[in-house]
Amino acid sequence: MRGESPDRRVLAPAAPRGDKGGVTDATSPEALKKRPRVFSGVQPTGTLTLGNYVGALRNWVQGQHDVDPIFCVVNDHAITVRIDPEELRRNTREVASVYLAVGLDPEHCILFVQSDVPEHTGLAWVLNSVTYYGELHRMTQFKDKTAKKQLEGVSAGLLNYPILMAADILLYDTDEVPVGEDQKQHVELCRDVAIRFNGLFGETFVVPKPVIPKIGARIMSLDDPTKKMAKSNPNPGSYILLTDPPDVIRKKLARAVTDSGTEIKAAADKPAIANLLTIASALSGKAIATLEDEYAGKMYGHLKKDLGELVAETLRPIQEKIATYMADPAQLEAILDRGAERARHIAGPTLARAKQRIGLGWRQSGR
Ligand code: AQP
């Protein structure tokens, strides 16, 4: 592959989507009214992985000018597991830098940090009263994160995580929630809670729907293709971080587990190769079937080597921008402060409406 011009390689990064319609038109109040309101977020529990990028961020960026977008760094969620406060502060700034570095446009999207908008925790308490313990206890993510743990050591926050997530979404009259497959169940619970609240207390919330990407909704661990790639995995070889240097990326992919046989196919009995092909397809824009044809007769090592180059090349410009934003905290704070102000403008009336409906707004004046 070395020495070939980029467009002739089997794996080259997909061309960025062109600007659709121009920013001015796309963000005019008339245009925004017709567009679905989109809300999503990432918790700053660590540096983001390629799974977060392929399953979530990349799709947010691609669709941002077709929707009315709100993206949040959900740091209130991050304290549901034990995390060093200094690390949390740093991760919060880093996730916000990643949002900007991957191409979310702060002039168009509302970008903010969750803890700057206290309406999130305010509404979560209200929704606690219409969410059942059994529902929370059944959540796959809760079961996964508490597996093999003494329940005495598991925070109530981890159990209540989906309620806070429901509050995040419902505060903004959200129509669509773009997430990876792992978060679909939480969005479905959010829908149930909204429908229940509306039924009990009168129309209050828009009922949102999850939007799951066709390709890359569940990127798997490099050391175990039965587990999703996650930033909290204790084995660094299991994930690629968005800040991993190119040589680390190449090494991690070279060491990724493979399946028996030699054929490069996304088959049910080849989950590891299917995972590598999925990443390749998402980043190159080529269909998996096309990649299978192009790799016919080649070895697993060819795919891993090409994929190492593709991932490193895709992440290089993103990494440069992350470093630039991290080096300019004043600029980052200004963007996020403005985002929080815009977010509160929407969230405040929604929380007031919910409190009024449930009886917490008690004044006869209706204030
Ligand atoms: N492996 C994945 N494949 C596809 N999408 C993924 N997402 C996460 N992992 C994958 C999507 O990224 C968004 C943000 O997720 P999050 O960090 O807020 O929470 P998470 O789903 O719990 O992600 P992690 O990496 O697994 O974090 P930890 O390890 O801290 O729990 C979501 O849209 C998610 O679907």
Care to give the gist of this entry?
With 367 residues, the protein is mostly helical. The chain has helices at residues 23-26, 29-34, 50-63, 75-78, 85-102, 119-128, 133-137, 140-146, 156-170, 184-201, 246-254, 271-284, 288-294, 300-326, 329-358, and strands spanning 37-42, 68-73, 110-113, 176-178, 209-211.
Written overview of the protein:
α6 packs across α9, α9 (156-170) crosses α10 and α12 crosses α14. The protein has two domains: 22-217 and 329-358, Rossmann fold; 236-324, Tyrosyl-Transfer RNA Synthetase. It has helices spanning 23-26, 29-34, 50-63, 75-78, 85-102, 119-128, 133-137, 140-146, 156-170, 184-201, 246-254, 271-284, 288-294, 300-326, 329-358, and strands at 37-42, 68-73, 110-113, 176-178, 209-211. The protein starts with 22 loop residues before the first helix and ends in a 9-residue tail after the last helix. It contains 15 helices and five strands. Bound molecules: adenosine-5'-tetraphosphate.
